[in-house]
Design brief:
Blueprint lengths: L1 H21 L9 H35 L1
């Protein structure tokens, strides 16, 4: 599970980097730029969710160890 969350996070980071290169900073919310902005925000959400999942799995392991 840990490797899967890391791989998904790396893919999301790659999507962020790719879409930042596609942005036109003069008009970031027009045309194709809007798609790039939405994809960047979605990728940031995925990274956040994967971090939460990793932390929750770590907490779950510690709770099982204490029983």
């Amino acid at each position: 599970m840990k490797i899967l969350t890391i791989v998904i996070s790396v893919i999301a980071l790659a999507l962020i980097v790719f879409n930042v290169t596609q942005l036109d900073f003069n008009a970031p919310f027009k045309g194709q730029n809007l798609v790039a902005v939405i994809t960047i925000v979605a990728s940031l959400c995925v990274i956040l969710m994967m971090a939460i999942l990793r932390i929750s799995k770590r907490i779950e392991q510690k709770v099982k160890q204490n029983k």
